[in-house]
Amino acid sequence: MFKNLHEYVNSVFQRDPAARSTFEILTAYPGVHALMFHRLSHRFWCWRFKWLARFISSFARWFTGIEIHPGAKIGRRFFIDHGMGVVIGETAEIGDDCTLYHGVTLGGTTWRKEKRHPTLGNNVVIGAGAKILGPVTVGDNARVGSNSVVVKDVPAGATVVGIPGRVIGPKRDDSKSQQREAMAKKLGFDAYGQSADMPDPVAQAIDLMLDHMHLVDNKMKVLSSALEKAGIKVNLEMPELDVNAFEEQSPPQYPQRDRPKENS
Fold this sequence. Notes:
By secondary structure, this protein is α/β, with parallel strands linked by helices. The protein is 36% helix and 13% strand. It has six helices and 15 strands. The chain has a six-stranded mixed β-sheet with strand order 3-6-9-12-14-15. It has a five-stranded parallel β-sheet with strand order 1-4-7-10-13.
């Protein structure tokens, strides 16, 4: 028992730089308290003392702001950071070394008495406000960004963002990705399901548009040159893009009488 407790406290130190002492973790961390209550309520649930298990989980929700159904299966070194508003359903299954932030929901999408909640693999990070809905599977080492809504299976090592959630990060199965992951663990942790090299979907979309524009520009030049060789004079040259026009400029200077009034 004490060995497992020591192991768990060490895992909290690794994932929360704000943790200062073991005493602080055991007495002032609602995520730790919620897990302790769940271990107790889950044991009563397995012993078929269903009402007592639900009563303990209800008290834990009142005490910590975290709702974990006593039927949920949770692995080792599970950590809920901050924790307020976390909801974990009855048939949810969580692997080892998983991290959830506040506002996360592992919810169901049906009223039928069946497997209706998510299954998380090992070392999964779910960002603040994310919703994992239905009997989907989130693979090992996956990351779910803040406020994402996941309704489909997530491959192992993938990064998911958006509504509905879509995979934007590559699977971490090559040597370079493994080196990056090792370096990230050395430097810090993946807070809120984010990572330092996570691509920006908006920036990616803009990059694709710019690539397409450059391709069209080159095609127009080739077409214009071919028409000129054929004796057809058509000016299809596109104006050069002035990159300096996009640089940050100083705000316009208004005359004293024309300056917009500031709101009080």
